[in-house]
Amino acid sequence: MMATWIFSFVILAESSRWQSMGSGFRGRRAQVDGEDVLVGVAVLVAVIAAVAMISRFRSRHDGRTAFNSPRALFRSLSKAHGLGWKNQRLLWHIAKWQRVAQPSRLFLEPDRFEAVNLSRSLRKRQNEIQALRERLFGQALESGKESAN
Predict the structure, then answer these.
(1) What is the rounded CA–CA span in Å between residue 103 and residue 91?
(2) What is the model's pTM?
């Protein structure tokens, strides 16, 4: 209790220090000139640039960097669709026959599975290919075409 009272007394005794704290912002010192604004803008630009550089550096080194790998994309899409190695090889053969630069396009273009776009040896596997097409694009693909016409 005594310590609290002494502390309160010290704070009251120092009140002149609190009153004079704002004196630096009165009179001539209250004016803002161009140099002050320029320094403030320079500091703000430096902070923004530092944050941008740190962000760019971290994004490059967080393991999510962009790369171009058609095989990796193809494997990733095959995995996402739950395709086994047999179906993956079949898709790969279709892409190779059609000379597709990006084999992953087969996951976007159902017309590539039509018999007219297949080699003679691939046409012999037409049932497998149609089953794969239905797995990737759904069975409603043909009925959707008919209703559009």
Answers:
(1) 8
(2) 0.49
Tens digit of each residue's pLDDT, the chain (149 residues):
556 656 565 555 555 555 666 666 666 666 777 888 889 999 999 999 999 998 888 777 666 555 678 888 889 999 999 999 999 999 999 999 999 888 899 999 999 999 898 899 999 999 999 999 998 988 655 544 544 44
- Contact (CB, 8 A) for 74 and 94: no
Cα–Cα distance list, 64 to 52, 59, 60, 78 (Å) = 18, 7, 7, 20
Q: What's the CA angle centered on 55, arms 53 and 57, to 5 degrees?
A: 65
Q: At what angle do helices 85-97 and 126-137 cross, to 10 degrees?
A: 100
